[in-house]
Amino acid sequence: MEITRIFEFDAGHRIPNHHSKCKNMHGHRYKMELTLSGNILETPNKSFEGMVFDFYDVKTIANEFLETLDHAFLVYEKDSALLDFLKNSDSKFVIMSKIPTVENIILFIWKNLEPKFEKKYNKTLKIKRIKLWETPNCFAVYEG
Ligand SMILES: [Zn+2]
Questions:
Q1: Could you tell me the residue range of the domain that residue 112 belongs to?
Q2: How far apart are the CA of 57 and the centre of ligand 1, in A?
Q3: What does the pLDDT look like over 82-92, one tens digit per residue?
Q4: Å from CA of 101 to ligand 1 middle
């Protein structure tokens, strides 16, 4: 069984080597569809009886990490000019080991969320898919 919860966060980025306007500093309202898969829990009289995972807990756990990205600038660790600027500004930023394309942002989110979900009360629970919208027309999907 799969369950999906939708999240949104605002973040800035730039694609330093891009041939066109994506090399400029700009921001997006990212929309993320987080899909978990697992068995339906059957423990009688528990709050989560009949669920794969409580949507409330999905929200709490994912937001713990997503709050680090929200209203932050996502900067590639080798984009030294921008990194120097951000370090000298009173600004929130997150350093990424890869260029912050929507594809790499998904991998970054996946790496950080996976350990938070896989050891919870449902032993079969795992992240099945992350779909990340960068604009209303563009998204990427990763399935592990
Ligand atoms: Zn962009």
A1: 2-70+99-142
A2: 30
A3: 999 999 999 99
A4: 7
